[in-house]
Protein backbone atom coordinates (compact mmCIF):
# COMPACT_ATOMS: atom_id res chain seq x y z
CA UNK A 1 0.00 0.00 0.00
CA UNK A 2 1.58 3.30 -1.04
CA UNK A 3 2.35 5.80 1.70
CA UNK A 4 1.22 8.72 -0.46
CA UNK A 5 -2.58 8.54 -0.60
CA UNK A 6 -2.40 10.42 -3.91
CA UNK A 7 -0.78 7.34 -5.50
CA UNK A 8 -3.14 4.43 -6.08
CA UNK A 9 -2.83 0.79 -7.05
CA UNK A 10 -4.80 -0.76 -9.90
CA UNK A 11 -7.44 -2.04 -7.47
CA UNK A 12 -7.73 1.31 -5.67
CA UNK A 13 -8.05 3.28 -8.89
CA UNK A 14 -10.62 0.84 -10.28
CA UNK A 15 -12.70 1.31 -7.13
CA UNK A 16 -12.20 5.09 -7.32
CA UNK A 17 -13.43 5.23 -10.93
CA UNK A 18 -16.11 2.56 -10.35
CA UNK A 19 -14.92 0.39 -13.23
CA UNK A 20 -13.73 -3.23 -13.46
CA UNK A 21 -10.05 -3.85 -12.76
CA UNK A 22 -9.74 -5.71 -16.07
CA UNK A 23 -11.08 -2.70 -17.98
CA UNK A 24 -8.71 -0.35 -16.15
CA UNK A 25 -5.77 -2.66 -16.86
CA UNK A 26 -6.56 -2.60 -20.57
CA UNK A 27 -6.79 1.21 -20.48
CA UNK A 28 -3.39 1.43 -18.77
CA UNK A 29 -1.77 -1.01 -21.21
CA UNK A 30 -3.10 0.99 -24.18
CA UNK A 31 -2.02 4.30 -22.66
CA UNK A 32 -5.64 5.48 -22.48
CA UNK A 33 -5.28 6.69 -18.88
CA UNK A 34 -2.32 8.37 -17.12
CA UNK A 35 -0.40 5.62 -15.32
CA UNK A 36 3.08 4.27 -14.56
CA UNK A 37 4.34 0.71 -14.28
CA UNK A 38 6.72 0.17 -11.37
CA UNK A 39 8.22 -3.29 -10.83
CA UNK A 40 5.42 -4.90 -12.88
CA UNK A 41 2.74 -3.07 -10.84
CA UNK A 42 0.58 -0.29 -12.25
CA UNK A 43 0.39 2.93 -10.25
CA UNK A 44 -1.92 5.91 -10.76
CA UNK A 45 -1.60 9.46 -9.40
CA UNK A 46 -5.10 10.46 -8.39
CA UNK A 47 -4.67 14.19 -8.99
CA UNK A 48 -3.35 13.54 -12.51
CA UNK A 49 -6.23 11.18 -13.25
CA UNK A 50 -8.69 13.79 -11.95
CA UNK A 51 -7.28 16.34 -14.40
CA UNK A 52 -7.44 13.76 -17.17
CA UNK A 53 -11.10 13.10 -16.38
CA UNK A 54 -11.94 16.80 -16.36
CA UNK A 55 -10.23 17.39 -19.70
CA UNK A 56 -11.97 14.30 -21.11
CA UNK A 57 -15.34 15.79 -20.18
CA UNK A 58 -14.60 18.65 -22.59
CA UNK A 59 -14.55 16.28 -25.55
CA UNK A 60 -17.06 13.60 -24.57
CA UNK A 61 -19.99 13.31 -27.00
CA UNK A 62 -23.16 14.90 -25.65
CA UNK A 63 -24.86 11.54 -25.12
CA UNK A 64 -21.91 10.09 -23.21
CA UNK A 65 -21.68 13.13 -20.94
CA UNK A 66 -25.41 12.88 -20.20
CA UNK A 67 -24.94 9.22 -19.24
CA UNK A 68 -22.14 10.21 -16.86
CA UNK A 69 -24.38 12.82 -15.24
CA UNK A 70 -27.21 10.34 -14.81
CA UNK A 71 -25.17 7.52 -13.29
CA UNK A 72 -25.53 8.87 -9.76
CA UNK A 73 -27.65 11.73 -8.47
CA UNK A 74 -26.28 14.67 -6.53
CA UNK A 75 -27.72 15.08 -3.01
CA UNK A 76 -29.30 18.34 -4.24
CA UNK A 77 -30.01 19.63 -7.76
CA UNK A 78 -27.07 21.59 -9.15
CA UNK A 79 -28.93 24.90 -8.92
CA UNK A 80 -29.51 24.31 -5.19
CA UNK A 81 -25.74 24.15 -4.65
CA UNK A 82 -25.38 27.68 -6.01
CA UNK A 83 -27.85 29.96 -4.13
CA UNK A 84 -27.93 33.69 -4.97
CA UNK A 85 -25.78 34.58 -1.94
CA UNK A 86 -22.95 32.53 -3.48
CA UNK A 87 -23.00 34.49 -6.74
CA UNK A 88 -20.70 37.50 -7.15
CA UNK A 89 -20.79 39.57 -10.32
CA UNK A 90 -17.97 42.02 -9.59
CA UNK A 91 -14.77 39.98 -9.44
CA UNK A 92 -11.93 42.28 -10.37
CA UNK A 93 -9.05 41.26 -12.65
CA UNK A 94 -5.89 40.51 -10.74
CA UNK A 95 -3.49 37.81 -9.66
CA UNK A 96 -4.76 34.30 -9.29
CA UNK A 97 -4.45 34.62 -5.52
CA UNK A 98 -6.48 37.85 -5.47
CA UNK A 99 -9.24 36.32 -7.58
CA UNK A 100 -9.40 33.23 -5.37
CA UNK A 101 -9.52 35.44 -2.27
CA UNK A 102 -12.56 37.19 -3.72
CA UNK A 103 -14.30 33.87 -4.26
CA UNK A 104 -13.45 32.66 -0.76
CA UNK A 105 -14.78 35.93 0.66
CA UNK A 106 -18.19 34.98 -0.74
CA UNK A 107 -18.06 31.84 1.41
CA UNK A 108 -16.90 33.85 4.41
CA UNK A 109 -19.77 36.31 4.05
CA UNK A 110 -22.18 33.37 3.85
CA UNK A 111 -20.72 31.91 7.06
CA UNK A 112 -19.33 28.83 5.27
CA UNK A 113 -15.54 29.35 5.46
CA UNK A 114 -14.18 29.84 8.97
CA UNK A 115 -10.50 29.66 7.96
CA UNK A 116 -10.10 31.52 4.65
CA UNK A 117 -6.28 31.40 4.75
CA UNK A 118 -6.25 27.61 4.93
CA UNK A 119 -8.90 27.47 2.20
CA UNK A 120 -6.78 29.68 -0.05
CA UNK A 121 -3.67 27.59 0.59
CA UNK A 122 -5.42 24.42 -0.62
CA UNK A 123 -6.77 26.11 -3.75
CA UNK A 124 -3.34 27.53 -4.62
CA UNK A 125 -1.74 24.11 -4.12
CA UNK A 126 -4.13 22.74 -6.71
CA UNK A 127 -3.45 25.60 -9.13
CA UNK A 128 0.30 25.04 -8.84
CA UNK A 129 -0.17 21.61 -10.42
CA UNK A 130 -2.04 22.86 -13.48
CA UNK A 131 -4.54 25.67 -14.00
CA UNK A 132 -8.20 24.82 -13.52
CA UNK A 133 -9.10 27.27 -16.33
CA UNK A 134 -9.58 24.43 -18.80
CA UNK A 135 -12.84 25.49 -20.47
CA UNK A 136 -12.87 28.53 -22.81
CA UNK A 137 -13.34 31.58 -20.59
CA UNK A 138 -14.24 29.40 -17.58
CA UNK A 139 -12.29 28.06 -14.57
CA UNK A 140 -13.23 25.45 -11.99
CA UNK A 141 -11.02 26.08 -8.94
CA UNK A 142 -11.18 23.27 -6.38
CA UNK A 143 -9.17 21.31 -3.82
CA UNK A 144 -6.62 18.79 -5.08
CA UNK A 145 -8.09 16.34 -2.58
CA UNK A 146 -11.85 16.96 -2.36
CA UNK A 147 -12.12 15.18 0.99
CA UNK A 148 -10.06 18.01 2.54
CA UNK A 149 -12.74 20.58 1.73
CA UNK A 150 -14.06 21.83 5.09
CA UNK A 151 -17.65 22.49 3.97
CA UNK A 152 -20.12 20.00 5.41
CA UNK A 153 -22.41 20.23 2.39
CA UNK A 154 -21.45 20.70 -1.27
CA UNK A 155 -21.66 24.25 -2.58
CA UNK A 156 -20.55 26.19 -5.66
CA UNK A 157 -19.47 29.83 -5.74
CA UNK A 158 -19.96 31.61 -9.05
CA UNK A 159 -17.77 34.63 -9.68
CA UNK A 160 -17.94 36.72 -12.85
CA UNK A 161 -15.08 38.94 -14.00
CA UNK A 162 -16.55 40.99 -16.83
CA UNK A 163 -13.19 42.44 -17.91
CA UNK A 164 -11.57 39.01 -17.96
CA UNK A 165 -8.58 38.00 -15.85
CA UNK A 166 -5.40 36.02 -16.43
CA UNK A 167 -5.97 32.67 -14.73
CA UNK A 168 -3.26 30.76 -16.62
CA UNK A 169 -5.90 29.26 -18.91
CA UNK A 170 -4.86 26.36 -21.09
CA UNK A 171 -5.78 28.32 -24.24
CA UNK A 172 -3.95 31.45 -23.06
CA UNK A 173 -7.10 33.57 -23.17
CA UNK A 174 -8.79 35.53 -20.35
CA UNK A 175 -11.08 33.85 -17.84
CA UNK A 176 -14.49 35.44 -17.23
CA UNK A 177 -16.46 32.96 -15.14
CA UNK A 178 -15.14 31.02 -12.15
CA UNK A 179 -17.01 28.20 -10.45
CA UNK A 180 -15.42 27.43 -7.07
CA UNK A 181 -16.37 23.80 -6.37
CA UNK A 182 -16.68 22.86 -2.71
CA UNK A 183 -17.43 19.18 -2.13
CA UNK A 184 -15.73 16.85 0.36
CA UNK A 185 -16.89 13.69 -1.42
CA UNK A 186 -14.90 12.60 -4.47
CA UNK A 187 -17.86 11.15 -6.38
CA UNK A 188 -19.99 14.25 -5.78
CA UNK A 189 -17.03 16.43 -6.75
CA UNK A 190 -16.67 14.69 -10.12
CA UNK A 191 -20.45 14.68 -10.64
CA UNK A 192 -20.56 18.45 -10.15
CA UNK A 193 -17.81 18.89 -12.74
CA UNK A 194 -19.65 16.61 -15.18
CA UNK A 195 -22.92 18.52 -14.79
CA UNK A 196 -21.17 21.87 -15.20
CA UNK A 197 -19.38 20.58 -18.30
CA UNK A 198 -22.77 19.70 -19.74
CA UNK A 199 -24.08 23.20 -19.02
CA UNK A 200 -21.03 24.79 -20.65
CA UNK A 201 -21.97 23.23 -23.98
CA UNK A 202 -24.94 25.53 -24.36
CA UNK A 203 -24.21 28.07 -27.11
CA UNK A 204 -23.84 31.62 -25.85
CA UNK A 205 -23.90 30.65 -22.17
CA UNK A 206 -20.85 32.71 -21.21
CA UNK A 207 -22.22 35.75 -23.01
CA UNK A 208 -25.55 35.45 -21.19
CA UNK A 209 -23.79 35.12 -17.86
CA UNK A 210 -21.72 38.23 -18.45
CA UNK A 211 -24.84 40.16 -19.46
CA UNK A 212 -26.60 39.32 -16.16
CA UNK A 213 -27.42 42.38 -14.03
CA UNK A 214 -27.87 40.46 -10.79
CA UNK A 215 -27.48 37.01 -9.24
CA UNK A 216 -30.99 35.98 -10.24
CA UNK A 217 -30.33 36.66 -13.90
CA UNK A 218 -27.01 34.82 -13.77
CA UNK A 219 -28.69 31.75 -12.28
CA UNK A 220 -31.47 31.93 -14.85
CA UNK A 221 -28.85 31.94 -17.60
CA UNK A 222 -27.40 28.75 -16.15
CA UNK A 223 -30.55 26.92 -15.14
CA UNK A 224 -33.34 28.34 -17.30
CA UNK A 225 -34.60 24.90 -18.27
CA UNK A 226 -34.56 23.70 -14.65
CA UNK A 227 -36.09 26.77 -12.98
CA UNK A 228 -38.94 27.21 -15.47
Write structural notes for this entry.
By secondary structure, the chain is α/β, with parallel strands linked by helices. 45% of the residues lie in helices and 15% in strands. The protein contains nine helices and seven strands, in the order E-H-H-E-E-H-H-E-H-H-E-E-E-H-H-H. The strands form two sheets. The protein has a four-stranded mixed β-sheet, sandwiched between helices. It has a three-stranded antiparallel β-sheet with strand order 1-3-2. Helix 4 packs antiparallel against helix 7, helix 5 (96-109) packs antiparallel against helix 6 and helix 8 crosses helix 9. The longest helix has 14 residues, at 46-59. It is globular and about 55 Å long. It starts with 6 loop residues before the first strand and ends with a helix. The mean pLDDT is 84.
Describe the secondary structure blueprint for this structure.
Blueprint: E1 7-9, H1 10-17, H2 21-30, E2 36-38, E3 41-45, H3 46-59, H4 62-70, E4 87-88, H5 96-109, H6 116-129, E5 138-139, E6 155-165, E7 175-182, H7 186-199, H8 205-211, H9 215-227
Parallel strand pairs: 4-6, 5-7
Antiparallel strand pairs: 1-3, 2-3, 6-7
Helix pairs in contact: 1-2, 3-7, 4-7, 5-6, 8-9
Number of helices: 9
Tell me the overall shape.
globular
Q: Calculate Rg over CA atoms.
A: 18 Å
As laid out across the biggest beta sheet, the strand order is 4-6-7-5
Q: By helix and strand content, what is the structural category?
A: alpha/beta
Task: Report the order of strands and helices.
Answer: EHHEEHHEHHEEEHHH
Helix content: 40-55%
How far the N terminus sits from the C terminus, by CA atoms, comes to: 50 Å
Number of β-strand runs: 7
Strand percentage lies at: 5-15%
